Amino acid sequence: MGFERVCAAEDVPADEGLGVTVGDTDVVVARDGDEFHALQNLCSHAAVALSEGEVEDCQIECWLHGSRFDLRTGKPTGLPATEPVAVFAVDVRPDGVYVDTSSTLNGVHPS
C-alpha cells in the first residue's frame, strides 16, 4: 500500500490523538512536540478508540480505563493493558502527514 496522506500536520492537536482510517485500518496520529507517531486506534485492553484519549510525555492514554501506550513502541506503560498496539511508519512532508500501514514497526499486527 505504501504511504498515504492522512491529514495536515496542523490537524494533529498537541495533547490528543487524531483518528484516521488508512485503507481498512483505523489509526491514531499523535505528536510529541515536533515528532509524529501513528498507532493502531484500538486499546489492546478494552477495544476502544485511543484517539479519544490524551497525549502527554510521548504516551497516549485510553480514556476508558487509563491504560497508557508509548507512542514510539506501542508498548503499554500503564495498566490495565498488558499487550502492545501496532505502530506504523510516519513521514511528515510539506503537504501533510503520511502513514504506511502495510507493515508495522514493532511486529504487532492490527486486529
Walk me through this protein's architecture.
The chain has 111 residues and is an all-beta fold. It has one domain: Rieske [2Fe-2S] iron-sulphur domain (Rieske Iron-sulfur Protein), CATH 2.102.10.10. Helix content is 0%, strand content 42%. The protein has strands at residues 3-7, 18-22, 25-32, 35-40, 55-56, 59-61, 68-70, 76-78, 87-93, 96-100. The relative contact order is 0.25. Keywords: 2Fe-2S, Iron, Iron-sulfur, Metal-binding. Pfam families: Rieske (PF00355).
Topology:
Blueprint: E1 3-7, E2 18-22, E3 25-32, E4 35-40, E5 55-56, E6 59-61, E7 68-70, E8 76-78, E9 87-93, E10 96-100
Antiparallel strand pairs: 1-10, 2-3, 3-4, 4-9, 5-6, 6-7, 7-8, 9-10
